[in-house]
Structure of F-box domain-containing protein:
Amino acid sequence: MGQSPSAALDRESSFSHRFGFLSSSSLGSSDGFSDEILANRDYTAEIPDECLAYVFQFLGPGDRNRCSLVCKRWLCVDGWSRHRLSLDAQSEIEASLPSIFMRFDSVTKLTLRCSRRSISLNDGALVSISVRCQNLTRLKLRGCREISDEGMSTFAKNSKNLRKLSCGSCTFGAKALNAVLDYCSNLEELSVKRLRGIHDGAEAIGPGVAASSLKTICLKELVNGQSFEPLVVGAKNLKALKIIHCLGDWDRVLQLIGDRNRNGKENLHLNNYNSNGNNDALMEIHLERLQVSDIGLSAISKCTKIENLHIVKTPDCSNYGLVSVAENCKLLKKLHVDGWRTNRIGDEGLVAVAKHCPNLEELVLVGVNATHLSLGAIASNCSKLERLALCGSGTIGNTEIACIAAKCMALKKLCIKGCPISDIAIEALGSGCPSLVKIKLRKCRGVSCEAGEWLREQRGSLVINMDACEVDGGFEASVSNGGIHEVGVDYPQVVSQVTDRDASTSSNGRLALLRSKFGLFASRNFVACTFRRWSNNEDSFNGNL
């Protein structure tokens, strides 16, 4: 269209020359020969390399590896367009590193992982990688026990563009991390887990030149995590802090963070200016399995811009600390509390959250004995609440669920696990929570499979995930934006298909239990439900009925 006959002829000529095709005159009337040539035509040859690389971006590592075997061109395009690479970092790989990074010369994200039973690559290999990967921005090290402080220091000098570093189960220590913080001025994320070189008496870590660029710090399972105190306090633009299962008392560190934020705000008001990198930028704090008390919670309440707070299995925290956080952190959107069944956090703290945090969108309560007093207040005042998980509480029953059903108009996802509710609560959900799209029920022995069937009939589009039966509305629910991982609640990640674990609950033992509990009528309904599920999920259902 819009093309001159001469241009079309030239294009056809060049196309035929490129693929070695014979002209139509040379083919004569041999239609079979012509069909054979057309069948062998490479239709991708006209696709530019950039477009082919763009297509490769949508493929997984396995599919990309298979595509690279198609032809030399695809091999070449896959090499220069692959930015993410994961290697088995055993010592034997060192001899292959030159050829690997000659082919993949555009790698920006690299993962080096070595199993416990193998010997990992050493300092020389890591330095060689840093020389060949000049564009490296992300590095993940797992089990690389042969890398020392010296090797990491040299790597840091050669990788000044590094933005994210995650290391776990390695043997280097404070000297290596200080080198990274001193040389990698663009570092934004640092994650450290089970570093053997971080022990009692280790030198202080940070802050370094990276203190002005760091936005996320994650510390997991460290013997002496307090050695990161200078870095945590000195990172002025820090937005997310996660401290998980680290030994020692953390109240002092949190107090220093709170004082820094308070002083930063005072200086901001005194100087009457607005800085893009102000000291009040902390928006997410995750505290799990720590020795931290209400003193620490009161300290972080000075970080008034917090939107995401996890208080998980910290037995010394009580209502007092939560009230302090609620009164000061009024922008809170996500709150996860695992009370570890210590009964120190309950209605008093949650009522304060309902009163002062109207923007709450996600609430997870595990081992917290809340009642209709606090849940009713949250349902009434937190009109934006979309995701709610109630797990392992002996005080959350039919009354509490009825209160939620009547008042939570925006609720989209609900998880109830190990709570003493019955079919009465399911009946309340049948007419309540008009925005609800997904509900998960686990270990709620008072809820029958028939109640799930009834709820499905009442609300056909609702995805229902239960122990005894799986009922879905014909579509898969989307994953929650704030997926709940750390507290052991997995309702945002649940899909509507039957899994092996769910199938195993449909064994003869479960059938016998239902017969004894609900009688023959219940057992017949369960069999029918199971057969429907079997027919719809034949590939994934392995249970024996």
Residues 48 and 86 are 27 Å apart (CA to CA). The chain has 22 helices and 16 strands. The chain has a mean pLDDT of 81. Residues 83-248 form a domain with the Leucine-rich repeat, LRR (right-handed beta-alpha superhelix) fold (CATH 3.80.10.10).
